[in-house]
Design brief:
Elements: E1 3-9, E2 25-34, E3 57-67, E4 74-80, E5 84-92, E6 97-107, E7 122-123, E8 131-133, E9 147-154, E10 164-167, E11 171-178, E12 189-194, E13 198-203, E14 208-213, E15 216-220, E16 231-239, E17 243-253, E18 261-274, E19 278-283, E20 294-298, E21 301-305
């Protein structure tokens, strides 16, 4: 899935809510639209089409424009259940600009604080150069943490210079799938500890991630099954620049309070992650856990399997 950001010049506008309004400026609209597909692949991403019937959440689109050699930042925000919005702008000819876009899932208007900028999973009040994960809402296996970003530079101050920007996910997605669920004790909770720090901030103007910290997820498991005999034990969205690697421990429990352990596994060899792709660790994790890090690409995914696992696609 991708988002297309199209900058179209409009011949005339009335009462345009523009930026850098100037008699010699060029006025137009930045139209943000989603492609027909709603997922990058079968394992990656929230089904955005469900927002049309979801009365609690909607998409938030943020556009920020940075004129060169100034401290000004122009920001516009749109909320929608639809997969397209338009931003009216007006720019000065000959001025260089950087455009940054961020789109994420937030609470519907009725559920947002009156004085808030709708931040739910990501703190954006410091601008799109310093987006940070809100730790209190950074939970495992929460598909609504899905988000999209893109940036471009306008060199000449003419909107026609840029035809489109493709917005992609700023994440890699990490999954742990066990294929021995039918022969193991049913897991009710789990604890995942990243033993190698993961990024917590993102700069949408450059597409870079930063501020690595440790993170622990303690959570209740729930039916999150790919196919018969399998169960997704863990899934997380991790900010990355292009490529990244991490290590982690996972301890799975038979009760909801993380007290009675079924199996503990340490993935202490660096697990490679790639932006806008899924890395799936798959094997007999509840009963065996002897996973070898054999890289096996499949479609848009990267798989680590054990010797007995032959599946490489969903």
């Amino acid at each position: 899935m991708f988002l297309a950001l199209v900058l179209g010049v409009v011949s005339c506008q009335d009462n345009l809510e523009g930026l850098d309004v100037n008699v010699n400026g060029e006025k137009g609209y930045i139209n943000v639209s989603l492609a027909e597909e709603t997922r990058a692949d079968s394992a990656f991403g929230f089904d955005l089409s469900s927002l049309t019937t979801d009365t609690e959440h909607e998409l938030r689109y943020i556009l920020e424009i940075y004129p060169e050699n100034t401290d000004k930042v122009y920001r516009d925000v749109r909320y929608s259940d639809n997969t397209s919005v338009s931003f009216p702008v007006s720019i000065v000819a000959g001025q260089k600009y950087t455009f940054a876009v961020w789109a994420d899932i937030v609470a519907e208007d009725a559920n947002r604080a009156a004085d808030a900028d709708a931040d739910l999973y990501y703190e954006t009040s410091n601008g799109l150069k310093s987006i940070s994960i809100i730790d209190a809402n950074w939970n495992a296996m929460d598909e609504k943490r899905d988000a999209f970003t893109g940036h471009a530079t306008l060199e000449t101050g003419h909107l026609s210079e840029i035809n489109s920007i493709t917005l992609t996910r700023p994440f890699a997605k990490l999954r742990v799938v066990t294929n021995d669920i039918e022969s193991a004790t049913e897991p009710k909770s789990a604890k995942v500890t990243y033993t190698q720090s993961v990024y917590t901030q993102f700069d949408a103007t450059t597409g870079t991630a930063s501020n690595a910290k440790n993170k622990v997820h303690t959570y209740k498991t729930f039916p999150y099954t790919d196919k018969e005999g399998e169960m997704t034990l863990f899934a997380d969205y991790l900010l990355v620049t292009e490529t990244f690697a991490t290590k982690f421990d996972i301890d799975v429990f038979s009760d909801e309070n993380c007290t009675t352990s079924i199996k503990q596994n340490s993935f202490d060899t660096e697990i490679s992650l790639v932006r806008n792709k899924v890395t799936t660790i798959k094997g007999s994790i509840l009963t065996d856990g002897n996973i070898t890090n054999t890289l096996k690409p499949a479609n848009n995914e990267i798989w680590y399997t054990n010797g007995s696992t032959t599946e490489a696609t969903t």
